[in-house]
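Re: Re: ligand-bound prediction request (bumping)

Still looking for help on this. To restate: I need the protein modeled with zinc ion bound, output as structure tokens. Inputs repeated here so nobody has to scroll up.
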Amino acid sequence: MSTTGTEPQDPRAVIETLSYDVFVNDPPPHNNGLLPNGERKGGSPVASTLIYGSEDAVLTDPAFTTEQARELGDWVASKGCNLTDIFITHGHGDHWFAADLLAERFDARIVASAGTIAQMHAGVAARPFLWDKVYPGIPPAAVTAVTVPDNHFTLEGHDLVIVEVGHSDTDDTTVLHVPDLGLVVAGDVIYNGAHLYIGESVLVDGLQPWRDAIDKVEALGPLEIVAGHQNKELDDDAERTIAETRHYLDDADELLQTRDTAVEFFDAMIERYPNHLARTVLWAGASAVYGVREHPDEDVTQILVAGWL
Ligand SMILES: [Zn+2]
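Reply:
Sorry for the wait, this slipped through. Here it is.
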């Protein structure tokens, strides 16, 4: 936007309106056999959100394999925007291991909260015995993300606010609030048509912290929420996705109390959610929760990892 001389500025012209669009990467091939019901193991789709103004854009959670980065990057390039920042919602590698490839391609900065950056380092450390054992094609990933003052940055004058919501499906998770769009990019706090990963609830004594995180998202008053794991056929309605994520946690808690084994829990959840994607995620979570219950003296981290293998 340029102004000349002493022309009065039209305030409506100073701040351009924002828009957003979502690219959902299908899960990459998974190398580790079958689920208890005989299906091949898979993964979960990962959603990346492009928030853009008249020229500049910000991208969130750019997935994790080289192939995903190529497809996502081509989509971003097709939008013709100047990508300034890549924001990472939380430390799970499937949301960010490919971030450097996108940052280099578009000369963009990578932004996250201090808590998320610490979790990203933990994710890199877990690669050899977890991620690289399951998924081929993850590029070398260094943690190059930086924090921003007060967890706040801007896109063409519009506020982008990093909101720390604590533990949801892992520690130190955040969401990106875009007040001028009524939008929350929710990472793994809100899911949409895909199974939730409940495994790390063993580290925080249950699912209440996740419910608290959802309350914090709701308090932002969003109209639309982009869930990090979603069925791309569904819309982004905030009220529905919040209600469904809460309901899923309630169902999980009920069935964790009434089903004696991980397989029984897995089967019962599939019966309640026959159309949800990512049953491998359901199984990994069930394996972790029942594994800790059945082997209270064993190392919790090893039980969590084993759920994916
Ligand atoms: Zn995730």
